[in-house]
Design brief:
two-stranded antiparallel sheet; 3 domains; 565 residues
Length: 565
């Protein structure tokens, strides 16, 4: 296991668990080769919890599933026409067909770009690489079907020297080449370990995280530095010399230190990487440094960064596989099997160890094809559980880690922005205005300014993106008074306000249906119809139009709208 990059302490298992995983994998390959992964997911989820069937919520209704899958796969809610068509469809395989349709859209690539941008860059401010170039790299990668390991290797080997492909170098350059920041972020993102407290000493609370782990990763980047080349481009260059040493502050304090220790290149508890030795310093370079011309980019014969990228993003590195599977699960289910996702250690075991072992093997077998994994996860009954349990009042409440009930997920700023624009019909207005020029890209260009405004208000501080739901005074004032929200609600040809005003005043049921399908992606209840009827009774002319706008505003401001459920 050490040769595969596993941390022995983190992945200690009993012989029974190991044998069970082997049996499961063998069954997949032999006896149940035709059984889809989604079925295996459901079996292992229920296997972990005695009486799971009594705890679990029913499978979500069509409208609940429809809204959830649109938000999770394309980052917005469906159009009213798409909602009507899906709800009216009686074909048994319609959910599977919808998933396949959404995964193939440019909107899905855009949503993956947004999701992984926040994951990889934490909304850090732009410094040396234009954010649009980085976003284009991510979007094109997902649109072209690149696998996750390929994307990671391209990011980790990028130096920004190629003017036509500077986008992926933003990962390093907008962190200004800070080795400690790079080390910490790589541990969290790709290895599932938070080594923040292991820089100066062994982690005081997590026995598995040692100072040598931190500096074993740091050693891959200690030779890298930010420089400006002849064309005035900021790039991330690399030398052929430089070593990492470390010393525990506790040992220094207690006067027991034997001096700084050398840190070889080490991928957590993996094997130490050796590098070729050269008789002369100049032999270690393809392009030698120039002491007189500091704009010359040195190029070593052996690149530690390239070696790290090859090593970390590999099916042989099961920790990378495991972390990727766990993060993907958390993005879709609202919680990791190991939770939090960057605290994978022996004292924080997975809620479903067999499931995580299966997903780890599966993502390796699928060569990090994220869409293939997403498809199977969202078609599982576990993902499709309702957020409404409907159990007996005295029944025990299931725990979040049992995945028996769908968890509420606050909409991301982008989901909220595009959801509001779709709900109010602003996107429909823009689609009509673009006419023959309508594409995903042209629609995005027309409306991205609104998305950016939502992100500023709902996205958290730069470098610390908001992960939960927290309503601030500025956010409330924005929804209540911002001119953009007012513009969405003003009557325009084809938007929701216009469609509702064109419906007969004598048919409150039709008004309530159009309102609820457009905003909440569901049909109204009898109480909803009564509320709409009561609110609009006696309203005519301008007063009726104002009342319609207030109804739409109430919908997009509601807690039901603000969460993916």
């Amino acid at each position: 296991m050490k040769a595969l990059g596993w941390c022995a302490a983190t992945f200690r298992t009993t012989q029974l668990v190991a044998l069970t995983v082997v049996v499961l994998i063998g069954q997949r390959d032999l006896a149940t080769a035709a059984e889809p992964l989604r079925t295996q997911i459901d079996r292992l989820i229920s296997f972990q919890t005695p009486g799971y069937d009594q705890l679990a919520a029913p499978v979500a209704t069509d409208d609940e599933f429809l809204r959830r899958i649109y938000l999770d796969l394309v980052g917005t809610i469906p159009t009213t026409a798409d909602s009507r068509a899906f709800l009216a469809d009686t074909e048994p395989a319609k959910r599977e067909k919808l998933v396949d349709k959404l995964l193939a859209t440019p909107e899905h690539a855009r949503h993956m770009q947004r999701t992984f941008d926040v994951l990889l860059m934490r909304r850090l401010p732009q410094k040396n690489v234009p954010i649009p170039e980085w976003e284009k790299f991510l979007r094109d990668s997902f649109a072209q079907g690149k696998t996750w390991d390929q994307i990671v290797r391209e990011v980790l080997t990028a130096d920004g020297a190629d003017p036509a492909n500077r986008g992926p170098a933003r990962f390093y350059l907008d962190r200004e080449g800070d080795v400690n920041q790079i080390t910490r972020d790589i541990g969290k993102l790709f290895l599932g370990v938070n080594l923040d407290c292991a820089q100066c000493h062994n982690h005081p609370q997590i026995d598995d995280y040692h100072q040598q782990h931190y500096y074993g990763i740091s050693a891959f980047f200690i030779r890298s530095f930010v420089m400006t080349d002849k064309e005035k481009r900021v790039i991330f260059a690399e030398k052929a010399d430089g070593e990492t040493t470390f010393e525990s502050v506790f040992e220094i304090r207690d006067k027991v230190s034997k001096g700084p220790k050398s840190a070889g290149m080490r991928l957590f508890e993996g094997l130490t990487i050796s590098e070729p030795k050269f008789d002369k310093v100049e032999d270690a370079y393809l392009v030698k440094p120039d002491e007189k011309d500091k704009t010359v980019r040195p190029v070593p014969r052996f690149s530690r960064r390239v070696k790290f990228a090859e090593w970390v993003a590999s099916t042989d590195n099961r920790r990378f596989c495991r972390t990727t599977a766990n993060r993907l699960w958390a993005l879709l289910l609202g919680r990791g099997i190991v939770h939090p996702v960057d605290l994978d250690h022996s004292d924080n075991p997975p809620s479903h160890p067999l499931l995580l072992a299966l997903l780890t093997e599966e993502i390796a077998a699928r060569n990090f094809d994220l869409n293939s994994m997403i498809r199977e996860i969202v078609l599982s009954q576990t993902y499709q559980r309702s957020s409404r349990r409907m159990a007996a009042p005295d029944a025990p409440e299931p725990k979040d880690e049992q995945f028996a009930v769908a968890q509420l997920k606050a909409l991301s700023p982008a989901q909220f922005a595009w959801g509001v624009m779709q709900a109010t019909g602003e996107t429909d207005v823009q689609r009509a205005a673009l006419g023959d020029k309508l594409t995903e890209e042209s629609l995005h260009a027309a409306l991205v300014g609104h998305e950016q405004r939502f992100t500023q208000l709902f996205g958290g501080d730069p470098g610390v993106p908001q992960t939960g739901f927290e309503s601030t005074a500025n956010q409330v004032l924005f929804l209540a008074n911002d001119p953009a929200i007012g513009s969405f609600l003003q009557r325009k040809n084809g938007n929701l306000t216009d469609r509702l005003l064109k419906l007969s005043e004598d048919n409150p049921a039709a008004i309530a249906e159009e309102l609820h399908l457009s905003t909440l992606t569901r049909l109204p209840t009898p109480d909803d119809v009564q509320d709409v009827q009561t609110y609009l009774v006696g309203q005519t002319g301008e007063a009726r139009e104002a009342a319609i706008r207030e109804l739409i505003w109430a919908m997009i401001s509601s807690s039901e709208f603000r969460f993916n459920h």
